[in-house]
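Database export, one record per block. Field names are fixed; values are copied verbatim from the stored entry.
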Amino acid sequence: MSSLIVGDDGRARCAWAGRDAEYQRYHDEEWGTPLHGDRPLFEKLSLEGFQAGLSWITILRRRPAFREAFHDFDAHRVAEFGPADVAALMQNAAIIRNRAKIEATISNARLVL
């Protein structure tokens, strides 16, 4: 099997991007691009944590909801989250509702600071 595929747009991509538009966009615009700055790095760390045991496309599709729920991954704001925020996040069906992953994200925000 070839490690490259050619999309309908004529672009060659890694086979993992498949035919999914979101994966193709991620491949073309983000994958392999260095990140700079605390916010983008905190977001990536957090989303990678939520991805554990799941596919990356699951996270990509939910990323807008994650950004909203975690205040665009502003570490200062996330570090202030308390039990009521965790409870609210556990009710948010638009994100991955895993208490350990949510609490790890909050803890990581505190450590980032």
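Remark 1: The chain has two domains: 1-33, 38-112.
Remark 2: The two ends are 46 Å apart (CA to CA).
End of record.
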